[in-house]
C-alpha cells in the first residue's frame, strides 16, 4: 500500500452540524422555488423529519447527483442547474466546524512517518477543505486534497480519483480509502482500490458499510489495519 485516502467529515473530523443546516435549507429553498402539493410528504421522501436529516436518506448520505434525481422526481421538473448553483451558494456561506476525531491526527502522523502518502477525498468544496486545513494547521499532513466543485465528479464515480492517478504513478491496488459512508466504499469498488476501511464516527450505521473490506470504530485504528494488511 502506498497511498491512504481519507474522507473528511465524519472520518478525520467530527461530522459538521453545519452540513445538516445546509441540507435542510437547500430542501426548503427547493420547495419554495418548485412548489409541490404537500411539503411535509416531500420532506419525508427526501429524509428530513422533525428538522433533522435521517442519516441513511438521500439528503443524509447521497451525492449531489443523487439528490438532484430525487428533487426532479418530487417536483416533476429539471432542477439540476438550480440545485448545483444553490448548493454551491449555501456551501460558500457555510461556517464550518473543524474538530479532529480523537487520535486521528496522531495516526496520520505515524502513517506519514512510515512512508505512506496521505490524501483527502471529500465531497466538500476546495474552500471548505482549505478552511479545514488552515483551521487545524494540518496542511503539511496531506500530499493531495481532492474536493468537489459544482461540476466535478463525485464519489462513488471512480473519476473522482483522476487527480491522484493523473499526477502520481500509482496503481489502484496500491491505494486504500477510509470513509464513513457507503459511497466511500463504493468508490473503492468502482476504482478497484486495494483496500476500503469503513469507520463508525460519521453518519452511516455499520450495516450500511457492508461493502468495506474492514470496519473499525475510528480512523485512529487505520494504522493497525494497514499493518495487518501488509503482513498478508
Automatic annotation (TrEMBL):
EC number: 3.-.-.-
Family annotation (Gene3D superfamilies): HAD superfamily/HAD-like, Putative phosphatase, domain 2
Signal sequence region: none
Coiled coil regions in record: none
Pfam families: HAD_2 (PF13419)
Gene Ontology CC entries for this record: cytosol
Source organism superkingdom: Bacteria
GO molecular function: phosphoglycolate phosphatase activity
Keyword flag Transmembrane: no
Entries under InterPro entries matching the protein: HAD-like_hydrolase_sf, HAD-like_sf, HAD-SF_hydro_IA, HAD_2, HAD_sf, PGP-like_dom2
GO biological process terms on file: DNA repair
Record keywords: Hydrolase
Protein name per UniProt: HAD family hydrolase
Organism: Staphylococcus pasteuri_A
Amino acid at each position: 500500500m502506498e497511498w491512504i485516502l481519507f474522507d473528511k467529515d465524519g472520518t478525520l473530523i467530527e461530522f459538521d452540524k453545519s452540513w445538516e443546516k445546509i441540507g435542510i435549507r437547500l430542501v426548503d429553498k427547493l420547495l419554495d422555488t418548485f412548489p409541490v402539493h404537500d411539503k411535509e410528504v416531500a420532506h419525508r421522501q427526501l429524509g428530513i423529519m422533525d428538522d433533522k436529516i435521517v442519516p441513511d436518506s438521500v439528503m443524509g448520505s447521497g451525492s449531489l447527483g443523487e439528490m438532484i434525481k430525487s428533487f426532479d422526481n418530487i417536483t416533476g421538473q429539471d432542477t439540476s442547474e438550480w440545485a448545483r448553483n444553490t448548493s454551491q451558494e449555501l456551501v460558500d456561506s457555510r461556517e464550518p466546524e473543524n474538530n479532529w476525531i480523537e487520535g486521528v491526527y496522531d495516526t496520520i502522523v505515524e502513517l506519514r512517518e512510515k512512508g505512506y502518502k496521505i490524501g483527502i477525498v471529500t465531497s466538500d468544496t476546495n474552500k471548505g477543505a482549505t478552511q479545514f486545513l488552515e483551521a487545524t494547521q494540518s496542511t503539511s499532513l496531506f500530499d493531495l486534497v481532492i474536493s468537489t466543485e459544482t461540476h466535478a465528479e463525485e464519489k462513488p464515480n471512480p473519476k473522482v480519483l483522476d487527480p491522484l492517478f493523473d499526477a502520481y504513478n500509482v496503481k489502484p491496488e496500491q491505494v486504500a480509502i477510509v470513509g464513513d459512508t457507503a459511497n466511500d466504499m463504493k468508490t473503492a469498488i468502482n476504482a478497484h482500490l486495494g483496500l476500503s476501511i469503513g469507520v463508525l464516527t460519521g453518519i452511516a450505521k455499520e450495516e450500511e458499510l457492508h461493502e468495506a473490506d474492514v470496519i473499525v470504530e475510528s480512523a485512529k485504528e487505520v494504522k493497525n489495519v494497514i499493518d495487518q494488511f501488509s503482513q498478508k
